[in-house]
Amino acid sequence: MRRLSLWMRAHPMVGDTLLALLLLFLDLLVLLARDNVDDGPQWYVVLPLDIAMTAPVALRRKYPLSTAYLILVLTVPHSALEAGISSATASCVALYTVVVYVGRRQALLYLLAQVVTSLLQMWGGWAPGGWIPLLFIGLIFALCWVLGEFVGARRAYQAEMEARLHLLETERDQAGRIAVAEERGRIARELHDVVAHAVSVIVVQADGASYALKSSPEMAERAVKTISETGRQALTELRRLLQVLRNEEVSGEPRIPQPTAESLADLAGRVRTAGVPVELSIDGSLAELPAGVSLGVYRIVQESLTNTLKHAGRGARARVRVRRTENLVDVEILDDGAGKARALVPAPDLPGGNGVIGMRERAHLFGGILQVGPQPGGGWRVHASFPVRLDP
């Protein structure tokens, strides 16, 4: 039954055609009854008029205003000949249709035209006179108007709900696209951090191994092992990130944990092995930090030490200081590398390459600040500060 109702709603002209046929059938019954008593106009006059009177009902939703006024015109001869009940019924259906599908203003004009036509018919003797028929017609028209208002309000409500649902779907799609873009940006930063750090360590260790291959085979062997471990770690992280990019289902498989601020000691050890002495100082506990803040601290230190490996030159040293207070995590990375050869002034907001951009985005994402630039006495300084408690 519900399927039939949905199908009828999708094909409204079918229901209107059935209504028109029903009115025509009732008029034919009136015509047959009149022929039996041999009273009134002949059937060949009434039958075409009945068909003309009921046919516009089938098109009432497609052409509501045109069919309404056509019905209004046809009611005059149909009522005058007393050809059936379709003139009164079709007029009520037409008023209801104009209220629902056109609007109140046009419906009011049409109602006035119906009232004037009815009065003219009564005064001209084409319809029964008196107050009772006039009152009955007024009540019928009022009922049709109220019913049209109710159905029109319901249709407007449904249209508004459909518009809201469409808007919600559009907003949901936009939010999804924004989330995907943000996630891809985050993954791009992760890829940069992982690849840049791993490649820098590999290049430095490979250069060291090539120099120490003949003079110190043991040192060359340690460098090769470091290259192997660094490459494996980089491949592991790259596989994880590529799985996210491909949207692969990884449910049921163990996820590789992200590094945290508590992994800074391991990071400093790898950089020392790569040839840059790193002094690590941690004041306060880095446990129970928000996951994003903890990862941001790690990545900023990683990017800074990677830049030291690439740009500071031989003999450079690095110092990492991390201090946690009740409300902040303060991170400072210093090196005394190639900056000695340049007379530069401090530039805390100095723009940098993609690495510096990624660090600044990480800091700003979690309500922190980032300062990057040369030190007055030479070397390079990176300073970041994160709030411990993120705003909801």
UniProtKB/TrEMBL annotation:
GO terms assigned for molecular function: ATP binding; phosphorelay sensor kinase activity; protein dimerization activity
Domain Signal transduction histidine kinase subgroup 3 dimerisation and phosphoacceptor positions: 183-248
Catalytic activity: ATP + protein L-histidine = ADP + protein N-phospho-L-histidine
E.C. number: 2.7.13.3
Domain Histidine kinase/HSP90-like ATPase positions: 293-389
Transmembrane segments: 83-102, 107-124, 130-151
Domain of life from the UniProt record: Bacteria
Any GO CC annotation of this UniProt entry: membrane
Keywords, sorted A to Z: ATP-binding, Kinase, Membrane, Nucleotide-binding, Phosphoprotein, Transferase, Transmembrane, Transmembrane helix, Two-component regulatory system
Residue ranges of every copy of the DUF7134 domain listed in the record: 5-155
Database matches in Pfam families: DUF7134, HATPase_c, HisKA_3
Protein name (Swiss-Prot/TrEMBL): histidine kinase
Species of provenance: Amycolatopsis endophytica
